[in-house]
Amino acid sequence: MDSTNITKVTPHISHNEHLIFERSQEGRIGYSLPPLDVDETPLDELIPAELRRDDDLEGVPEVSEVDVVRHFTRISTWNYSIDLGMYPLGSCTMKYNSRLNEKVARIPGFANLHPLAPESDSQGALEVIYELQEYLSEITGLAGVTLQPAAGAHGEMTGVMMIRAFIDARDGREASAKRRVMLIPDSAHGTNPASAMLAGFTVKAIRSTSEGFTDLEHLREMCAAGDVAGFMLTNPNTLGLFEKNIREICDIVHEAGGLVYMDGANMNALVGVARPGDMGVDVIHLNLHKTFSTPHGGGGPGCGPCCCTKELEPFLPVPRVVKDGDVFKLDYNRPQSIGRVKAFYGNFGMMVRALAYILTHGAEGLREVTEAAVLNARYIAEGLTSDYEKPFNAPPMHEVVFTDKRQSRKGVHTLDIAKRLIDYGFHPMTIYFPLIVQGAMLIEPTESVGRQELDQFIEAMRSIAREAKENPDLVINAPHSTRIGRLDEAAAARRPILRWKPKESASAA
Amino acid sequence: MDSTNITKVTPHISHNEHLIFERSQEGRIGYSLPPLDVDETPLDELIPAELRRDDDLEGVPEVSEVDVVRHFTRISTWNYSIDLGMYPLGSCTMKYNSRLNEKVARIPGFANLHPLAPESDSQGALEVIYELQEYLSEITGLAGVTLQPAAGAHGEMTGVMMIRAFIDARDGREASAKRRVMLIPDSAHGTNPASAMLAGFTVKAIRSTSEGFTDLEHLREMCAAGDVAGFMLTNPNTLGLFEKNIREICDIVHEAGGLVYMDGANMNALVGVARPGDMGVDVIHLNLHKTFSTPHGGGGPGCGPCCCTKELEPFLPVPRVVKDGDVFKLDYNRPQSIGRVKAFYGNFGMMVRALAYILTHGAEGLREVTEAAVLNARYIAEGLTSDYEKPFNAPPMHEVVFTDKRQSRKGVHTLDIAKRLIDYGFHPMTIYFPLIVQGAMLIEPTESVGRQELDQFIEAMRSIAREAKENPDLVINAPHSTRIGRLDEAAAARRPILRWKPKESASAA
Amino acid sequence: MRYIPNSPAEREEMLRAVGLERASQLFDSIPADIRLEKPLGVPSALSEMELLEKFNRMAERNRAATRPSFLGAGAYSHYAPTIIDHLISRSEFFTAYTPYQPEISQGTLQAIFEFQTLVCQLTGMEVANASMYDGSTALAEAVLMAERITRRKRVIVSSAIHPEYLAVADTYVQHYGIELERLEIDEQTGRTSTEALASLDDKTAAVVIQSPNFFGCIEEVAAIAERAHAAGALLVVAVTESASLGLLRSPGASGADIVVAEGQSFGVPLSFGGPYVGLFATRDKYARQIPGRLVGEAYDKQGRRGFVLTLATREQHIRREKATSNICTNEGLIALAATIYMETMGRRGIEETARQCAQKAAYAARRIGELQGYTLPFSAPRFNEFVVRAPSNADELLSRLASEKNITGGLALSRYYEGRETDFLVCVTETNSRAEIDALVEGLRSIAG
Amino acid sequence: MRYIPNSPAEREEMLRAVGLERASQLFDSIPADIRLEKPLGVPSALSEMELLEKFNRMAERNRAATRPSFLGAGAYSHYAPTIIDHLISRSEFFTAYTPYQPEISQGTLQAIFEFQTLVCQLTGMEVANASMYDGSTALAEAVLMAERITRRKRVIVSSAIHPEYLAVADTYVQHYGIELERLEIDEQTGRTSTEALASLDDKTAAVVIQSPNFFGCIEEVAAIAERAHAAGALLVVAVTESASLGLLRSPGASGADIVVAEGQSFGVPLSFGGPYVGLFATRDKYARQIPGRLVGEAYDKQGRRGFVLTLATREQHIRREKATSNICTNEGLIALAATIYMETMGRRGIEETARQCAQKAAYAARRIGELQGYTLPFSAPRFNEFVVRAPSNADELLSRLASEKNITGGLALSRYYEGRETDFLVCVTETNSRAEIDALVEGLRSIAG
Ligand SMILES: Cc1ncc(COP(=O)(O)O)c(C=O)c1O
Ligand SMILES: Cc1ncc(COP(=O)(O)O)c(C=O)c1O
């Protein structure tokens, strides 16, 4: 039945929840505090008026607890989430987030522990960090581990800075000053060049071959220049293909005096099956919020541990968590360290979850996950080849990329297909990444999806392919089933409104 | 945009979640248990085969943890709930369920306590029960309290059985055998007569006056017969009106040798303002899951404490929680008790929540709630009088009743108005109760709703009244915005399908 | 008050809007002489911080909650998968009312339909309701239902049923002219002695047993069913430890006509005795005699499947005093928890849990039976509970075990029975590690010796 | 494995469907010589029960988590309303990704828009981003942003900034040719000594201060802002204790150009140092230089309001090495928690919390200041932290306080500074009861005496 031509109907009250500032009413209260239990000193005696606020916190909302609960419960229903269905964002590894891990991270002994508490009274927390370091070292086949970085990009910055510090130490500042080029494939994620930049490197791109692999010729060429500090590659690469020449790649870079950085965002294809350390990689970052299932939280928090070879270990950030007998300690005495990348020890809460993930799976379970994840991706690849163009032939690992070549002939582009997928009840795949594939659609089902749902997804994609032929407008105008339609992002960027303002002054945005 | 004539679109994957049995796949696993850590004895030595299952639990689902989480997360989105908006079910008191109370009830010291643990090691739990008893006694103005009943109806049964036991003791079995009539207003909730029945009473109805009050004449008449054991009334009554003659009513019943039972479902209109004990009531039940905000949980658990006068106290169920010095004890030695109405001590988890509710509000807060609840109902009454017929003139307390008299002239009935309200994003009010009002619409906003939402509700109801005049079919065919339309309940009752069966044998339902 | 959205100022405005000056006028219809003029004798409001402190302090006094325990007797410690609490905490479930409006209650309705199905599968019955308050009230309702079906007044109940269940049944039936005759316990086997069944006659509405019974002994349900049916009586079977359904022949398969059970074993916290959930199942032919709510399949105009509350004509809101029961609010959220438990554990997990309970109990029983001075008086096969006869007063022995070894060793039967001063009931589940069991055994040894 | 929906049998079928026999063939594209042939050196799987046991055991070893504490120094114990954890635990929030698809991410997007607004209101700035990793990295990014804006390389930083923040800044800027010059501390007031500001010149990109500073002293922000602006430099103000924003003149109102803060005080658990959330705010004119994500208002064809990620051209996925930062995943869920905190506490609760912190700290400072042998070296006004000079080595004194009195009395400054062996930093918040404060005072007295 068509509900839209029915006057004054909102399908659900939760569909028109305003901003909290629009709900606020003077005098409403949502908090409770015990009465002040010490004798009060006149504020002026404590803090002179000129150092105190004089705006009476004008504009900060005044709402009841009930208002807050309804507000966030309602707007939460506007989100898609893993718990509602498959979330096949390529490169993002949207796998199931275990409730058990959430519970463990909330144990008061962890949640209420102050980072500056005496080490002797924080042994359990230090043990968590140490044990996780050990397992990540085993999984990557690399000796040194820091858990300090807060996300993948942060881990990248840490890793490339370590490469720089290592080369400085190895060649001496002067010689190393001539080694300031970081090679990065044209298929790489944007954070790679941005992170290299933070370490003061000049970024040069390495071409990919028509098969979707690193162009060894081009790599040799660039290395020949002698100014190469390192090569940052993702493996499996962002096309979902395993760089079969990885050993040779590492050799080329090493012979040229550079180091190999691996972006570990795609480790969900390798855990328990192959180890970067065994491939010749010198340093890698992991995304615990991908491979190790810590929740994405609508954009973080993450945790981006950095693992490296023995040679690079001295350059890891301080402090390091070490074991001395059966006591865990913080080691600050690392003269060659690149320094700190974050206050305290990183996103500890994520470490607890990731350790719980590893221990829940065990060795067999971790490999089982990898197999299931790759199998699911293969299954989708198989299911869609007849309807969508696959730019590369090599069998995909944990994710597969398609293009909109065929559909675009009818004027239907990747963005339209993605939006139309929403009407079928799925979150779209990653689109327009990697940049080297025209209208890329990067699909990563992860291991957390069952066969029926994979079949539904394949059926939906095929149906969209048919619609693109028979009724392109239907696809081009999608989505048709959401609370709001496509938003005018261009206009939003032209005259950005980045905060709420009270009506009167709203113009003065 | 009209999404319904778009082929193969389900607005959201969560909209077509099947039964778990339809999801089940042989070999899927959702559980984890530690390996058995004792040496295993062959089952046949423990339990002979003929006493063991031989069906291999055929048909019980086999699903993964991820399947379960998605299944319930999806179907949960098909529910309306207090957290999504106003839930104005008259007589049900759907108020905000505090998260703090949920947290408190889950404290391991309560959640993991076995009911048969030694009293000396359960003092905290006994203290919760005792303290709650004390406060409920203060709130009702009645001396004796039991928390054993699991819900309101259970409390009713307990209360009327106590009345019967009291009369048996007072008049002697023989004389009392002639007192087996329980008077109940025609406006009463169905559980009242059903509970009276359980105590072996014959139920006789008392008429209500055209003003919506107990008909005193009729009451006197019935009492004259001399066979009256008691009178069960709800106050404020189910029309939302306070029985202003309550004192007189109690006198009439008492003089006739009967006792007065008050259904306390509507106590949200009285807490801190007036006490049943002061009105002459002998025994009352409360619904902690209404007045004291323990969550309804989609149909329970509830908790229906029963409070009574000193005279009735000896008849309360066993065991009672008593305080002896500063030790809390279970007292089983109550020779006149009606016995047990439930194993153990009642729905303890609800008691913890209700006590937290009382302590969070404090004396002032409890009265504030009552005022806010009655004010909200008055505000709605005021807002709707111009569009809907109000059967009674007296000012309503915490809830107000309207009829569909005006709308039904156009063929639009209460059920249609209720369903149409769903399209406006509200849960409907209680309908067709009380039975004595034609097409009753009983509206109870509770204190948990803010003015804007009350105005939206009033506006929605007015708009429906307009639609009923201008476009009755729109209302008669409502709802138009839900996942499914009105279900054929008659057909469902004619050939009931009350469980899932595997396809093949489905016919044999 | 942070739970009341409207500010004092807003409430003032609203008062004006309805033509009043003072909030007190809202209560003008209450005669002055019965209005409460002083504030309630309730302490003043506590903040969240203060409230949590108070309850944490009280919880700490429940020492028994945090030590190894071998208590069963109607409430069992089983492992509850973490997702249960997460899912029932979705406010779409726990802040919803009874599903009176199916169009916006399908989540609850479908979950109940799954619950009813699972209860049927595990009990081996054909139809189950949406839940009762708990096992004990379910048993009482079963007796009343048997009377409705057979129109007979005599009911024979086993003395090996949970004493508190029997007490509740006594309360429920006392005004129905139903007499509950007790069947003795066979002191050899620990089972209900079937001799008295000879007295079965055409006045007998039902035979009521519990299996495994209160002493942990598995009854010969099939045999008793035959005897009952031969006399035209119904067999009512109660189960307090639902985990046993994963291993034992289902009551349905053994000939029961009505099965009631306590569902607490299915992922529901002990919570000092409640809220739990009563399971109630019977034969299709008795569906219209069932107490409580039933959810059935239904279709809308477009033929879309949904679920609704059905057969409401049995219920109090329609039939009033003629209803099959007075129950209204039941145990919805707890039934949901049990549903999530049964589906998460699933076919294999329910079986494995039962297997571990039986094996661990067997191990504990063997070890304790070997102890100097301790004996196991009953010979019948058991599931996960068994009676131990101690060398001295069991109550004193168990309190010493608690204070000296910090173990709750079981339940002294003197709580319910005279002449069983040295007996206590031990329960072992999958949550009791071998180390705990060994500590119990060692504790019993050292305290007795 | 219960987190993998497909059963082994289903996976076998799927393997066939993609034309393979064995799962190992899925990895044929990996050269044999680098495939891992042995199982990983990771213990075998733990069940839920075993896992919870293990983590509970580890958690118990964190004794400091469960005793009264007066630690601050960048991480603060504040009361977090219960609803925060309930709401962020809705899977619609915590299992969603960065809101790349606005049509099905409006919940997250609107929440971030509210977060940005609240951060602007509290800091007194015009534009704020969707969050940074934490306060320390936010500060480093602010320095880099100041360099981008001014194209100057000289940055003057106060030595009274959190030492770990300074360390992070050193790491971030080391390859940018930016030198961080330290401003000394005035040993009288405990404030940043402004003398060195004389050296401000046209090469100076920014002056960077923290207020309240690491020693708890409130800086004269406005005065420093004037000096900086006079030289065409920006003023960057860091706040580690965001609760202070409820009482102190906002950095924006005092002339700051960039404000960074640690948002942990807003309802975020201590969690041994993370995850926390960095607040980052500046002036409208610098909006296009901001690092990280920004959410803005947008409209669809029917003119319905929604929110989208905007000004993406600043970011790495578009600009790559020319981006304003490399940040991608930020602290979404923690920003949501902070948003819920700010809205629940609201205008009056944020003010009241700050007031109680200041009053309780003042009380504690006065009581400690009166103790034999203890002095308060710094004279500047403070919020809720202050330095105490002890009669003997502070580190030893605090360890005795912990072991003998079970109180974490504060932070010995020797952890970060040489020559401050007898100084320690005490923090008092609304969560410290008067009884706790008195116990601290008494403990310090008895241990010193
Ligand atoms: C291939 C790749 N590299 C790096 C990153 C950056 O990781 P993060 O978002 O945790 O900073 C991502 C994630 O977006 C990625 O997909
Ligand atoms: C007036 C009235 N009396 C009694 C009851 C029965 O209470 P319960 O559902 O808790 O058994 C209700 C609730 O439905 C009610 O509204």
Written description of the protein model:
The complex is a heterotetramer, with two copies of chain A (509 residues) and two copies of chain C (449 residues). By secondary structure, chain A is of the alpha/beta class. Chain A is 38% helix and 10% strand. Chain A is built from 18 helices and twelve strands. In chain A, the strands form three sheets. In chain A, strands 1-7-6-5-4-2-3 form a seven-stranded mixed beta sheet, sandwiched between helices. A three-stranded antiparallel beta sheet of chain A has the order 10-12-11, with helices on one face. In chain A, helix 6 (123-140) runs parallel beside helix 12 and helix 12 (348-384) crosses helix 15. Chain A starts with 19 loop residues before the first helix and ends with a helix. Mean pLDDT of chain A is 95; it is low at 1-11. With 449 residues, chain C is an alpha/beta fold. Chain C is built from twelve helices and twelve strands. Chain C has helices at 8-17, 48-60, 82-88, 91-94, 106-123, 135-150, 163-173, 221-230, 316-319, 332-369, 394-405, 434-448; strands spanning 127-128, 154-158, 179-183, 204-210, 234-239, 258-262, 278-282, 295-299, 305-309, 385-389, 411-412, 423-427. Chain C has a seven-stranded mixed beta sheet with strand order 1-7-6-5-4-2-3, sandwiched between helices. The longest helix of chain C has 38 residues, at 332-369. Chain C is globular. The mean pLDDT of chain C is 97. Chains in contact: A-B, A-C, A-D, B-C, B-D, C-D. One pyridoxal-5'-phosphate (PLP) is lined by residues 91, 151-153, 189, 191, 234, 238, 263, 265, 287, 302, 304 of chain B.
Structural class of chain A: alpha/beta
Instruction: Kindly estimate the percentage of residues of chain C that lie in beta strands according to DSSP.
Output: 5-15%
- Order of strands across the widest beta sheet of chain A? 1-7-6-5-4-2-3
Oligomer: heterotetramer
**SSE sequence of chain A, one letter per element:** HHHHHHEHEHEHEHEHEEEEHEHHEEHHHH
Distance between the amino and carboxyl termini of chain A: 42 Å
Uncertain spans of chain C: none
What is the β-strand count of chain C? 12
> What general form of chain A does the structure show?
globular
Could you describe the largest sheet of chain A, including whether it forms a barrel?
7 strands, mixed
Can you summarize the main beta sheet of chain C?
7 strands, mixed
Query: Roughly what percent helix of chain C?
Result: 25-40%
Cα-atom Rg of chain C, whole angstroms? 25 Å
Query: Helix proportion of residues of chain A, in percent?
Result: 25-40%
Q: Please work out how many helical segments of chain A DSSP would assign.
A: 18
Instruction: List the chains of the largest interface with their residue counts.
Output: A-D, 199 and 207 residues
Structural class of chain C: alpha/beta
